[in-house]
Amino acid sequence: MLGGVAGFGAVFLQLPGIVLALVLLAVVAGAGGRRYDPVRIGAYLMGVGVVGWSLVGPAVKGGGGYLFVSGWVLVTGYAVVAVVGCLLVAVAALTELRRRGTSR
């Protein structure tokens, strides 16, 4: 949910919103204490990517610039962020499944 709010802010606040989303990512990554939590970070990135992509995507249909960069660049960026988040969650799930499989 936090990632979705950050994605919404990144679209409408433009560059300051993206900076704020990065600051929130640092807070989310650091909130886990000493242990690295790829699921929390991946879920945040998926939220940012999917919400940003869904808000900017329809605006790109006509082409031209949107916000401060080309619309296609922005949509591709949000898609990459969402895919990276999905991959982090998938890697965390596979790692946990392997760990549980070897402990039996």
What topology emerges from the helices and strands here?
Blueprint: H1 2-12, H2 15-30, H3 38-60, E1 65-66, E2 69-70, H4 71-102
Antiparallel strand pairs: 1-2
Description:
The chain is mainly alpha-helical and 104 residues long. It has one domain (2-102). The protein has helices at residues 2-12, 15-30, 38-60, 71-102, and strands spanning 65-66, 69-70. Strands 1-2 form a two-stranded antiparallel sheet. Strand 1 (65-66) and strand 2 (69-70) form a beta hairpin. Helix 1 (2-12) packs antiparallel against helix 2 and helix 1 (2-12) packs parallel to helix 3 (38-60). It is elongated.
Mean pLDDT: 78
* Overall spatial form: elongated
**Helix/strand/pairing class, anyone?**
mainly alpha
Give the end-to-end Cα distance, rounded to a whole number of Å.
35 Å
The Cα radius of gyration reads 16 Å
Strand order of the largest sheet: 1-2
Order of helices and strands: HHHEEH
Strand content: under 5%
Low-pLDDT residue intervals, each spanning 5 or more residues: none
Major β-sheet annotation: 2 strands, antiparallel
Count of discrete alpha- or pi-helical segments spanning 4 or more residues: 4
Total beta-strand segments: 2
**In percent, how helical is the residue content?**
over 70%
Overall tally of domains: 1
List keywords for this structure.
single chain; 104 residues; mainly alpha; 2 strands; elongated
